[in-house]
Amino acid sequence: MSAEPETQHDRAPEITGPVREYLAVILDALNPPAPARLDDPTFRWLTRDRISTVCTSIRGLLADDDRNMGDVTFDVGWLRKQIEHTPISYEIGSTPDTTGGGQ
User: Fold this and answer.
1) Which one of 13, 58, 94, 103 is separated from 20 by 20 to 30 angstroms, measured CA to CA?
2) Is the distance from CB of 93 to CB of 37 less than 8 angstroms?
3) Is-contact 45 100, C-beta < 8 A?
4) Does an H or E element contain 8, and which?
């Protein structure tokens, strides 16, 4: 019997603490519920705004200066506040069936 090959996920280091929290906030910001209409302008605006906000945060963390000093904890709080300022204000659509059962 041969052992299963190791996958990239198996080798990935465990992400903990502030970095894990930061990534979770980024995921929340960039993964809003799908709109009822694909051409919903409010959804498009919200998505662009949140992408810009996340990019601003990442640029700040990567900046080679003393403004933020790589404080991930600060950025977690800042991103959460920015998400609160851009709440979901469009009609949410139904979740598509991704299981393959709805043919």
Assistant:
1) 94
2) yes
3) no
4) helix 8-11
What mean pLDDT value characterizes the chain? 82
Q: Which two tokens stand for residue 55?
A: 């990019």
Cβ neighbors of 12 (< 8 A, separation 6 or more) are none
> How far apart are the C-alpha atoms of 72 and 35, rounded to whole Å?
31
Spatial separation of the C-alpha atoms in residues 76 and 53, rounded to whole Å = 12
In order, the DSSP letters of 37-98 are STT-HHHHHHHHHHHHHHHHHHHHHH-SSTTTTT-HHHHHHHHHHHHHHS---S-B-PPP--
pTM above 0.90?
A: no
pLDDT single digits (tens) 20-39: 999 999 999 999 999 999 89
User: Residue range 14-18: average pLDDT?
Assistant: 86
